[in-house]
Amino acid sequence: MKFYIETYGCTANFGNSQDMAEALQEMGHISSALDEADAVIVNTCAVTEKTERKILRRLSLLQGKRLVVAGCLPVAIPESIRCISCRERLGLLSRSVAGKIADLFDECAPHAPQVALAARRDLCGIVNVATGCNGGCSYCIVRKARGKLVSRDPEEVVEAVQKLVRSGIAEVQLTAQDTAAYGLDRGTCLPELIDKVTDVPGRFMVRVGMMNPDNARPVLMELMQAFRSPKVYRFLHMPVQSGSNRVLESMGRRYTAEDFLGIVDALRAKFQDLSLITDVIVGFPGESEEDFRQTLELIKSLQPDKVNVTRFSRRPGTAAARLYDMPDRIKKDRSRELTRLWQEIAGTRNRRYVGQVLDARVTECGRGATMKARSANYTGIVVSGAPDLGSLCKIRITGWNPFYLDGILQL
User: What are the structural domains, with CATH classification, of the chain?
Assistant: First the structure.
């Protein structure tokens, strides 16, 4: 069987697709281009209405006997795909359901193992360390899609990392709906897992995925110790969602804006080059102009490297879906204002690197004759020239914008 997987949504979804692809290949099936595939597997996302509409448009184009719809939409909003013609509707992708997908296409026999693998364009591998969530955010449908927190056995995580490293991976991305919650159901914690992962021999870097403030705070001291490893990127993805404590309470977030800033200040005091990404929802029901101004002030104080700005979107079955939804024009205006602000901040932060020589690992092929590299704090660099994929280089920074740096190899 030739298969094609198309993935939407979070890093965890991409990790699920990665595991599925590996399992199918081990069974003798072959990853192929869309037009050659016997099976087309779409791993869906339900996080926002905008994303849902985009996926549904795509499914309408792909529908037919070779289509398998999987991921969060079939689990959380099954009625949304009821009219899509497909071979099967599945839940979350995993190695354990690879056989079921293969059985759906039993008329397509497994192929002989591939003699040569296609050249990789990146050396980034994903390891899902947990699924589900122990939160209760009033706007979020992910809990419905992925259930309660279930942490993966630490030895299983280590084995997955070892396998990636043996395959030549240079960047291991540890991901979950909330990595800071890892181990709360097992009597362990994220810092202990990071220590186990960084003990794996090999030349690779670890990117720790998104963590929520309420679960990061109890293990903050241990996290700072784990982040001291030279194998861990000085990178933090921690969503604040709003600068207004009144809105945070309505969202069901279990921290205050002050709590959030305290965590970031503590990490920056220990790691001055820390790169920070945060998330903000604008236009949450009941968000006043003053609430939004508090968010703007928090972002000015925070000085993040990136903000993922999302306009509030009603998700069926969530508590926030029953609240009054403000007009789209207000949400659009607030989204644009916040986006302008963070991009101005990010541009200023990136400009400070010009003229510096940074150590960075080349992790991806870029466009044309460029490569993509990551510095010790995970800042992205587009490198001119031809450094080897996976190599550690010295790069002189020659240009900047709010999203990445430009550089040349320093010989």
Answer: 2-104 (3.40.50.12160), 124-351 (3.80.30.20), 357-409 (2.40.50.140)
